[in-house]
Design goal:
10 strands, single chain, Adenylate/guanylate cyclase catalytic domain protein, Alpha-Beta Plaits, alpha+beta, guanylate cyclase activity
């Protein structure tokens, strides 16, 4: 599985960082549906996780300089992305709180659940729509004659989801058979080892979810990360 990190508000401050990230996420999910996987005839279902909070950034390496982002906000975004669902945008309460402070913004959210990220409890929401902008405006595409007025029906369509699930189950069964005949640690064992390593990495008492006050102090948000 490929994943990408996108940041708004670094290195240059951006008052609309949360709004920009939500619109970008809507564009990602919709644009993914326009890409059909060869041989399967199924559209890509992108899943997104967004968090908001402080980060440390800088250029790393002399041989191959790269601008890198570090911090618990990045870790939370990565975890939230893993909790998200195909075709869905899951975000922390800190993002919802930040964007609600902007009088120009008007987004609709559906409360999801509370996840434990390390020792921190994070309240999450699914992003449903931007009440002030259609999908066609966000993606700068022309609405078709049979399309909905705002494009959110198409964005949230579950068409192809069952076939994707069936394909993933078939691939998993094939992989299990291959692992059974392969010497050395199986893929499942290697995945378990990686998960245990990630679990240790996320063990922290610090909360970076500025909108959550479940037994943790609030931290002022400064930047949004999307995974």
């Amino acid at each position: 599985m490929d994943s990408y990190l996108v940041v708004s508000g670094a290195p240059n401050a951006n008052e609309d960082h949360a709004e920009n990230m939500l619109n970008l996420a809507l564009g990602f999910v919709f644009s993914g549906r326009l890409v059909v996987v060869p041989g399967m005839n199924l559209a890509i279902r992108v899943r997104v996780g967004i968090s908001c909070g402080p980060v440390v950034a800088g250029v790393v390496s002399q041989e191959k300089p790269r601008y890198c982002i570090f911090g618990q906000t990045v870790n939370v975004a990565r975890q939230i992305r893993s909790f998200s669902l195909p075709g869905k945008i899951l975000l922390t309460n800190s993002v919802r709180t930040t964007v609600s402070r902007n009088q120009k913004s008007n987004f609709t959210f559906t409360q999801h659940t509370v996840f434990e990220v390390g020792s921190t409890k994070v309240l999450t929401y699914f992003l449903e729509k931007n009440e002030k902008m259609s999908v066609w405006e966000i993606c700068d595409v022309e609405k078709g004659p049979a399309d909905s007025i705002d494009g959110y029906r198409e964005l949230h369509s579950t068409e192809g989801a069952e076939m994707w699930d069936s394909s993933k189950r078939a691939v998993l069964r094939q992989q299990q058979v291959i692992d059974a005949f392969r010497p050395g640690p199986s893929r499942t064992r290697r995945a378990l080892t990686r998960l245990q390593s990630v679990k240790r990495k996320f063990r922290t008492a610090q909360s970076n979810d500025s909108g959550v006050s479940i037994s943790e102090p609030n931290v002022e948000s400064a930047v949004c990360s999307v995974m």
